[in-house]
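Can't attach files on this board, so I'm pasting raw text. These are the components:
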Amino acid sequence: MADEPKGSRGSLQGIAMAVVIWAIVVLSSLYYVRYGVPELASDRGYLDSLYYVILGITGAAYILYQLALGYVIYRYRGDRPGAESSYWHESHKLELTWTIGTAAILIPIVFTGLIYWDRVRGPAPEDAVTVMAVGAQFQWDFHYPGADGEFGRFDPTLYAIDNQIGLDETDPAAADDWVLTNQLVIPVNRPTRILMRSKDVQHALFLPNFRVKQDLVPGMTTEVWFTPVKTGSYEVACAELCGLGHYRMRAFLEVMEEADYRQWLSDNAPAAVADAAEPAAEAPSASAE
Amino acid sequence: MEHEKQGFVSKYIFSFDHKMIGKQYFTLAMSMGFIGGILAVLIRLQLGFPSQPFPFLENLFPVGMASGIMTPEFYVSLFTMHGTIMVFFLLSLLPVSGFGNFLIPLQIGARDMAFPFLNMLSFWTVVPGAIIIIISFFVEGGAAASGWTAYPPLSAIRSAIPGSDLGQTLWLVGMIFFVASFTMGGLNFVVTILNLRTKGLRMMRMPLTTWAQFIVGILGLLSFPALAAGALLLTFDRSLGTSFFLPAGIFIGDTLMPHEGGTPLLWQHLFWFLGHPEVYIIMLPAMGFTSDILATFCRRPIFGYKSMVYAIWAIGTLSFLVWGHHMFVSGMSPFLGSLFVVTTLAIAIPSAVKAFNWLFTIARAKIQFTSASLFGLGVVSLFVTGGLTGIFLGTNATDIQLHDTYFVVGHFHFIMAGAGLFGAFGAVYYWYPKMFGRMLSERLGKIHFWITFVAYYAVFFPMHYLGVSGMMRRIYDPNVYEYLQPLQPVNLFITISAFVLFTGQLIFIYNYFASMRRGAPATSNPWNATGLEWSTPPHPGHGNWEGEIPPAHRWPYDYSEPGKKRDFTPQWEA
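---
Top answer:
Structure tokens for the assembled complex are below.
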């Protein structure tokens, strides 16, 4: 056509577009594999497997589609010799193919996801170590229930500098309770159940190495459970915006061998229990199952 | 149609003309987008150079950047307002309110929108909203600082963060203005498209842009009131002592709050009941623009027109059934979460239909590379990239790890912000001749495209690496965490790319304003396109067509029809 937009048939643009798209696909994919998920320390490896399966499928779709896009842009440049565009604009067969094809790829992902979700969100095993995480601007308090395995009552009117979690000490169940600030210690290879509540705004308990994330909602108790499978010290983060100090609401999670954990309890729990004006001698039994 | 001579005020300010109102929205949206962009640059400044002093910035932000170092509360306000401004005041106003108003009557063959006064009112309702949002930066405590999602209690209790004082109140008032404006607009869209189509323009002959605006009008009408209700209830909680979103026992700043009985999750449901359709309110027009632009510059009919229309319907309908995928780890019932996985991933099907139809439109084409078509091709690329990463997030099991990380930030900047923005850019390059009777500079347009396309990938793709590595969003300084420290080079790279991306947009702004006077005069159909809008004079006046409104004899995609002399047959030709 004589009156086509000026310069619009320049092959440079089409070739450049194809090359740039191809370059983006190659570079973005090559770099992607350099950044892996944080080292796994829990039994939730199956979530990682699902992540890698989806990565494989979407990665292949990404690469193939963008390569094809670059190719058709290159191939059907307006200034190619003998350029002719086709009026063909409908094919029920093709359209049905990619509609059903997409659904067929998604259905297994959906079902696998739902099965894993069920596993993650199902009830915690009976023998789980239970801790209550109390989130506040901007610190984590981990409330251990002590030997009786029962959390003492809390009362919001009792929040104070020396009673961060508002524990009601007149409650008999509170007698052997104790609290760690910004530190959580749990034994390896035993399920851990973390109950959560917030003192003020929403927070989210994020354990990057354990594939655990759960919001803390004021007025509700939320929970997660998982089994740590590797000992070591890990960072705990807040993942829900909670105020100006959100970025520094950090804690540590220590995973210990069962024996070390018991030793640690007898070394450390008594002091905490002593603070609660309880005989230290009872503390070691906290580790008994 | 007769029109009295118009004075300056009735022509440029309180205009009833849908085209002028559209242009007013453009000016407002671009100004807001420019501010939103500056906020993004400041956010990236902090993440690229955490807590380093930039003394010259102290003059601009004496409180937020005292001695040149950004305070955490200022940082939180920055990303809160960046999100609010970009999502509502740029990405909703430009493609929907701007192009919707400008294009619907032109594309359906109407002299104006059904309710011109309501149209004017809708614009002058959103202006105070925008002004209030901007003013909130300068009040005691600074702008709102609870994220663009404004989750209570952070947003509800004044002492929770400095921005939750007056700043948050102004945010809520601004949003209520916005919602009022947007619902008026949506009503106008739906009524206009249903009633004012020219003779012969059956629904299934409408351009996909108009189809998208039609569905968007419905989505806006049904979803925005949920935000208005939420914002009103939150205002009550903040100012009248009610407890819709606040339970008993909240303890902030050594004070036990008097509220009891509410739940923060209620807000999340109300917010995301708007929030997710809102994503498609932004996306659908961009998909429509892309379809129209690609057909024109591929000189080929859009592939699978019918399935494109069905896909718009499917996406629009499903968009109301997926809001819970923002709440998988919120404390919402896990059973409900499972339900939302199914509906969410179902959206991938109509989305894939669109992606393949575009690919097959480009195949067997004779592509003309204009700025508009380059941006259209850009949309296709960004849409697929962003759509695929959505599968990780829509699957609740994998969302656990990725939720609230930079993976999410990367994802929505591709699918919603990126495709939405590229679609809007393409539309401006494409319809500018009809808007101002002049052509934009193609040379500047192409420079703008190349900088934007490459820089966009450079900014937002690496965010997926950050997210996979576990970097949370909304954190002022990731280096507080040992495991995030090795990611600093990635953050620096993103920051530098973001500066380039921002600078590239200045070219566009210059081109947009300079071409109004200096651009080459446009003919009435400069792209040899087929839509009804191209049958109007180069710079149509109030009433659009000087004589009779042309009837529609065909669909708007008759390009390269075999046996025809020209490679296009306009809709208005028998």
